[in-house]
Amino acid sequence: MTQSLTAKFGLGQIVRHREDSFRGVVVDVDATYAGPSNEPGPDHRDQPFYRVLAMGEDTGFLVYAAEAVLEHDPDVAPLTDADQAQWFTMDDAGHRAPRAQPIH
């Protein structure tokens, strides 16, 4: 029997990391862990993983995080389509990345 996974968070949604206390916007979603196979990965790869543009004090940084460590941030509204167009580039597959970073 095949298990179907549904992502809890969508593109453009603002989330908060439960352990590292940063906020960010979801820019890409993988149904399961799709990080480098040559690096030690997380224990629970069978859950959605998100690329999150995190908001730091001086700049943003990209994080790859498991759904289990993220939570909805009710204090911040999701980005509008216009905001997303201003801050992200998008490829033909719908993957988003910060404008300053190429999509891989």
Automatic annotation (TrEMBL):
Any Pfam family hit: YccV-like
Domain Hemimethylated DNA-binding, residue spans: 6-99
Domain of life, source organism: Bacteria
Database matches in InterPro entries: Hemimethylated_DNA-bd_dom, Hemimethylated_DNA-bd_sf
MF term (GO), any: DNA binding
Name used for this protein in its record: Heat shock protein HspQ
